[in-house]
Automatic annotation (TrEMBL), chain A:
PROSITE patterns: OTU
Protein name per Swiss-Prot or TrEMBL: ubiquitinyl hydrolase 1
PANTHER family on file: UBIQUITIN THIOESTERASE OTUBAIN-LIKE (PTHR12931:SF15), UBIQUITIN THIOLESTERASE PROTEIN OTUB (PTHR12931)
GO CC annotations on file: nucleus
GO BP annotations listed: protein K48-linked deubiquitination; proteolysis
Domain of life: Eukaryota
Annotated ranges, domain OTU: 85-292
Broad EC category: hydrolase
InterPro entries: OTU_dom, Papain-like_cys_pep_sf, Peptidase_C65_otubain, Peptidase_C65_otubain_sub1, Peptidase_C65_otubain_sub2
TrEMBL record, chain B:
Native source organism of the sequence: Agaricus bisporus var. burnettii (strain JB137-S8 / ATCC MYA-4627 / FGSC 10392) (White button mushroom)
Signal peptide region: none
Domain UBC core: 4-153
SUPFAM superfamilies: UBC-like
UniProt keywords, alphabetically: Ubl conjugation pathway
Protein name: UBC core domain-containing protein
Source taxonomy: Eukaryota, Fungi, Dikarya, Basidiomycota, Agaricomycotina
SMART domains, alphabetized: UBCc
Domain of life: Eukaryota
Record carries keyword tRNA-binding: no
Region named Disordered: 129-153
InterPro entries: Ub_conjugating_enzyme (IPR050113), UBC (IPR000608), UBQ-conjugating_enzyme/RWD (IPR016135)
Keyword Repressor in record: no
C-alpha cells in the first residue's frame, strides 16, 4: 500500500512551525483535498509500469483540474512557471520512494559531465554502505547479492555489461521496469536506510512513528518495517538514505501548505559536492520523479 | 546470470552443509531451488516434547525479495502440530511469512522462529476458524491474507 499517508505526515514533513487553531480549520479543508488526491493517484496508476515515460506536468494539472482540485492546480502551475515542466510517474506500490530516488539518482549518474569520476565516487560510497550494513549486524549472506548487483549497475554507467553497451536512460528505464531489476535496488536502499537509522539512533529515535497509528516505535521494530518491501517511507527514511549515500534531494510537497511558492524540502540542508540534486514530487502518500 | 533466488539459495544451502542446521532442525531434502524440506523438533520442555514435524519451503524466482511459501507437511502420516496458529492442512499464520517478511530473514531463521513459536505454546489447540479455513484454503498459503492479531507468535 502506498496511499496510506495522512495529514499528520505532511504537516510533520513540511510545516515545522506551531500548529494553531487557524491551521486546524485549514486542515479540515485539507482532508478533503487529500481524499480527492488519493482518488486521482489511484485512478491513474492502476496497471502502469513501475516507472512511466516522461510526461508533461500539464497532464497532471489537467487531471486535477478535471477533479476541481484547485489547490493542486495552483501548485502545479507554480512548478511549471518555475521551470519544472515534466515528471515520471512511479507505481504506488509502497516502494515508490525508493524506486523513484534510485532511478533519479542513476539518471544523474548517466548525465554527469564527469561520469568516470562520479562512478568512482559512487562505488566508494557504496562500499561504505556495505560496511555500515556489516557494522549493524546484517549478514554478508543477506546483502552481498544485492550489493554485487548494485555495484554492477553503477559500473554499467561507464563500461559495457554482458554484451550490452553502456547504460543509457532508456536502458535504465528497461532495467527499472523489470521487477527483478529494480527490486534489487529497492531492497538494497531499504537495507542501507534501516542500517543508517540503527547506526544513528540518537538522531532518529524520537521520530520513529508508525505511519498509520502514529505511535512511537522501537528502533528494531521500525527498522524491520523499513527492510520489508511495500512499506512506505517517511521523512526519517529520506534523511537516512540521503546521508548514507551522500545524495542531494529536493522534494516538492504538494497539498495546500504553501501560499505562494512550493515548499521544496532540501535534504540534506547543505548539499554534498559533486552531484546535482534529484527532484521528487510528493503528493500525500506518494512520490514521483520531478524533472526540470 | 543466475537468478537472485538461485544465487542466494545456493549460498544458504552451502552454509547449511558446512555449518549444519540449528539444534532441533534437520535438512530432509533440497534437491533444487524450488522446494526444500526440514524436520523441526522443539528441544527441552514443551507441549511438543518428543514430537517431530516436517516443514516445507517453496521458493519463487524473487526469493528473498518475496517470502517463501512455508507450511507443515501432512502427507504420508505426517501431521501439522496442534497450535493456535497452525491449521490442520499445515498452513501457518505467522506475520514473518507475510507482511513482516524481509530479505534479512533466511530459511534457517524461519525454522528457528517457528520452533520458538511452538516452544512458547501454552495450550495445544487449533485456530478457532480451522474448519472453515481448511475447507476453502488455497494450495499456496501465500495466497491467504492472514490477520495477525496476536503479536506473541
Amino acid at each position: 500500500m502506498s496511499q496510506s499517508g495522512n495529514t499528520a505526515d505532511v504537516n510533520q514533513a513540511t510545516a515545522p512551525e506551531e500548529h494553531s487553531l487557524k491551521d486546524d480549520l485549514k486542515d479540515l479543508q485539507f482532508s478533503e483535498v487529500y481524499d480527492l488526491n488519493q482518488r486521482t493517484i489511484e485512478d491513474t496508476y492502476a496497471d502502469g509500469p513501475l516507472i512511466q515515460d516522461v510526461a508533461p506536468l500539464s497532464l497532471l494539472r489537467s487531471e486535477y483540474e478535471a477533479n476541481d482540485n484547485h489547490v493542486f492546480v495552483k501548485e502545479i502551475d507554480w512548478l511549471i512557471n518555475n521551470g519544472y515542466h515534466d515528471f515520471r510517474r512511479v507505481k504506488g506500490d509502497g516502494d515508490c520512494f525508493y524506486r523513484a530516488i534510485g532511478f533519479a539518482f542513476f539518471t544523474r549518474l548517466i548525465q554527469n559531465p564527469d561520469k568516470d569520476l562520479a562512478v568512482v565516487t559512487t562505488l566508494s560510497t557504496l562500499m561504505a554502505t556495505a560496511n555500515l550494513l556489516e557494522e549493524t549486524g546484517i549478514e554478508k549472506l543477506v546483502y552481498e547479492d544485492f550489493y554485487t548487483e548494485m555495484e554492477a549497475l553503477i559500473r554499467w554507467v561507464v563500461v559495457p555489461r554482458e554484451g550490452k553497451s553502456i547504460l543509457t536512460i532508456d536502458g535504465l528505464l528497461e532495467y527499472f521496469r523489470d521487477p527483478e531489476g529494480s527490486n534489487v535496488v529497492v531492497v538494497y536502499l531499504r537495507l542501507v536506510t534501516a542500517s543508517y537509522i540503527k547506526a544513528h539512533v540518537e538522531d532518529f529515535e524520537n521520530f520513529l512513528f508508525h505511519p498509520e497509528t502514529r505511535e512511537l516505535m522501537s528502533v528494531p521494530d521500525y527498522c524491520n518495517r523499513v527492510m520489508g518491501l511495500g512499506k512506505e517511507a517517511d521523512h526519517v527514511e529520506i534523511m537516512a538514505l540521503c546521508d548514507a549515500f551522500r545524495w542531494n534531494v529536493e522534494v516538492a510537497y504538494l497539498g495546500g501548505h504553501s501560499k505562494d511558492a512550493i515548499n521544496f524540502v532540501k535534504i540534506p540542508d547543505a548539499p554534498y559536492p559533486g552531484f546535482d540534486p534529484v527532484f521528487l514530487l510528493y503528493r500525500p502518500g506518494h512520490y514521483d520523479i520531478l524533472l526540470k | 546470470m543466475a537468478s537472485i533466488a538461485a544465487r542466494r539459495l545456493g549460498k544458504e544451502l552451502k552454509e547449511i552443509h558446512s555449518e549444519g542446521c540449528p539444534v532441533g532442525i534437520n535438512l530432509v531434502k533440497a534437491d533444487d531451488f524450488e522446494t526444500w524440506w526440514f524436520t523441526i523438533e522443539v528441544m527441552g520442555e514443551s507441549e511438543y516434547k518428543g514430537e517431530v514435524y516436517t516443514l516445507q519451503f517453496r521458493f519463487d524466482g524473487q526469493y528473498p525479495i518475496s517470502s517463501p511459501a512455508v507450511q507443515f507437511v501432512i502427507t504420508d502420516g505426517r501431521q501439522a502440530p496442534i497450535h493456535p496458529h497452525v491449521y490442520s492442512n499445515g498452513h501457518i499464520c505467522a506475520s514473518i511469512l507475510g507482511n513482516e517478511w524481509s530479505p534479512v530473514l533466511s530459511v534457517t531463521a524461519v525454522c528457528v522462529t517457528l520452533q520458538s513459536m511452538l516452544a512458547s505454546c501454552k495450550k495445544k489447540e487449533r485456530p478457532a476458524d480451522n474448519d472453515r479455513y481448511v475447507r476453502h484454503a488455497p494450495d499456496n498459503p501465500k495466497k491467504t491474507q492472514f490477520h495477525y492479531d496476536d503479536d506473541t507468535v
